Amino acid sequence: MCGLVVIFDTRGRRDIPLETVARMNEVQRHRGPDEGGVHREPGLALGHRRLSIIDLATGQQPLFNEDGSVAVVFNGEIYNYQSLIPELTRLGHTFRTRSDTEVIVHAWEAWGEACVERFRGMFAFALWDRNQETLFLARDRLGVKPLYYALLPDGLLLAGSELKSLLAHGGMRLALDPCAVEEYFALGYVPEPRTIFKEASKLPPGHTLTVRRGKRIPAPREYWDVVFTLDNPISENDARAELLARLEESVRLRLIAEVPLGAFLSGGVDSSAVVATMAAVAREPVRTCSIAFSDPAFDESRYAAQVAQQLGTEHFVHPVDVDDFDLLDELARVYDEPYADSSAIPTYRVCQLARRHVTVALSGDGGDESFGGYRRYRWHLWEERLRAPLPLALRRPVFGLLGRLYPKADWAPKIFRAKTTLETLARSSVEAYFHSVSILRDNLRRQLFSAAFRTELGGYNAIEVFERHARRANREDPLALVQYLDLKTYLVGDINTKVDRASMAHSLEVREPLMDHPLVEWLASLPSAFKVRGGEGKVLLKKAMEPRLPQEILYRPKMGFAVPLARWFRGPLRERVRRALLGDALAQTGLFNPAVLRQLVQAHESGRSDHSAPLWTLLMFEAFLRHTLGQEAAQRESVAA
Fold it and tell me: Catalytic site residue 289?
């Protein structure tokens, strides 16, 4: 994998200082420790850090076409590049390398902006066409690879693989985006297209941005979206066979590498299915990597070992202390903006382990979204059955009032909490799902934010992110709706962000066979009953894998990567939480109500309530303020001096 940076003068041809682009490039060295390259010409600078995977000898970047008029810097893999080379050769293009990168420049010459529609893979790239004075930015369909950009007041456009590369330029203002703060505290990440900073954006998945010198910068153009048609007439037996064939094709494409390759193996269904498929198509034993937690309540390593033994993999296990909270500050440095998924800790560790043995690792990410694996999907379907008999216009006033009047019963099992059920009945489908995935619910965010900050928000609510996507979703089918919402939000903003930064911190490339876009499109055509049925998720995947994996692996309860936040915050991290949440850093922002911060801390410490998720979200926001904002301000003062 790699890192790219761009500085483009949209108004003229000002000189771009070498030290500026070199500084931006260098802060991403971890993404590409093998080689670095810079190209400058009047009004443009391209930088690249390379992690060599394919065509080790001649794949250096920036890479140019035959006459040097088109250049590209690229992060990712074009898995179908070998089939595109003969087609482009027949069109008259000459290849000097064996790399997938060179396919991009010739595909641009042949097909222009539509070139991305021919690519199958994970990618983010910036392409410069000197003859057309055009900068072309593109991101893959499912947002596996990141791409940030910012237009500065002086007309310079910056782009990079990580937000830290844009910050390293020194010209971007550090003003926080209030809407991004609201979204972060609702979801635990800042969803596309926002970043935590007003002046920077993320290029959304499945979009391109074409910038022509001297022209107004347009909005990004969408070139792909997944449509849940659910109208495929295939039988379930035939679907199982086709799924296996599609998985094998996807995995084969992702086995192309000139460096050691393996896979993550957690012992869950998705990673086990990927490894089982690798074992079926690979010529040599698969290398698999797992971590083992010291606390059995969080440890899945025995299941991973069972799968590894059955499939005959070369299995590596690394023990990790479940109290591995020393990574808090490192995570803030890695993620650049607030990020509150605590599973980033074990993800960071398993990437660290994998890099000792391989340079490329396949993962099972994306399976829950496409196959219907999350427990919250089944709960949402149950709630939808309650909501279905009555129209929203009737449910909202009646059950909304009853929900407000009914006393809370947090001590009771969820299904018996009448207040919660009444409130659920008063919501629309989108409101209900947003509520179920929110880390800090609407009422808690309202209490937590200061009066001044609520005024600055002007009524904005993070649910607008979901409403925007829901307008394009299949709202007739409740499962298809929430799958689409997750593919647009959680998968991109949380899962892909987590894996990209954790893996790149260790110069490890991660490939996701379950996010192969033809596979995702095909799964979206299948009936929802193939995915969730009778309280069981991932029905089709599990049935297809029964000949290859043990029943115990396929049908055991889902665990996921978890850490004991509640215990940490009452024990070894108690004082750190107090310092972070009740100290000066959060107070000086003016964003929060100090009394509510104190109530959250005290209620959790006493054991009256479990506020571990909100506390972690606040803790990571404070770490962002100290590390990203504090360090950036200090660096700018140093450069100025």
Answer: no
